[in-house]
Fold:
Amino acid sequence: MKPINKIKTNWSPKLAYAIGLIATDGCLYNDGRHLAFVSKDPQLINTFKGCLGLSVKVSKKRSGFVNTNYAYFVQFGDVNFYRFLVSIGLTPRKSKTLGALKIPDKYFFDFLRGSFDGDGTFYAYWDKRWASSYMYYLVFVSASFEHLKWIRQKLRLLLKVKGHFNLSLRVGACQLKYAKSEAQKVITKMYKSPNAPRLERKYKKVYTSLVLDRNNR
Structure:
């Protein structure tokens, strides 16, 4: 019997964003059918469901995340979608083996926004070495250095930004960091469409810092 294709795999901003989330906080089981996505943020879980048109139940479990006791997750099965993910480079037990993914350039920044919302961070501070010097960094995190190398190569090709790596932050994690002017270029592309799916909490944090920096000039 031919598998039923419940999740559409035609490229779109929503699909690319969901793939970014799967690449960071998703899981492909070994059975060739089932997948899961986990997050400490219920809004992100519901946004993920909306992007893929899922109607599955949201469950709660003890969390491995910092600063929260519980995490939310969804599990679902779709053979064709699973095969599609494998065809673009996702695999079971991907954490440290993830590399380049076959994401069309047109949708790369939707994917990147999903990656950032799944396991990225943004921070800002006043640099005390200079008066009125406000700094901020956009950071992508992965257990796979090869995956971050691919993201860096794509951003260098598409935006002419370099970024830099931090490999010693904690055991099992790597960071790709973009400072201020380069970060602004990436942020502008990631949030180009006001209607695109995003984690509102992170967007507001980023936007607040950009406004503060602009007003400080």
The mean pLDDT is 92. The two ends are 64 Å apart (CA to CA).
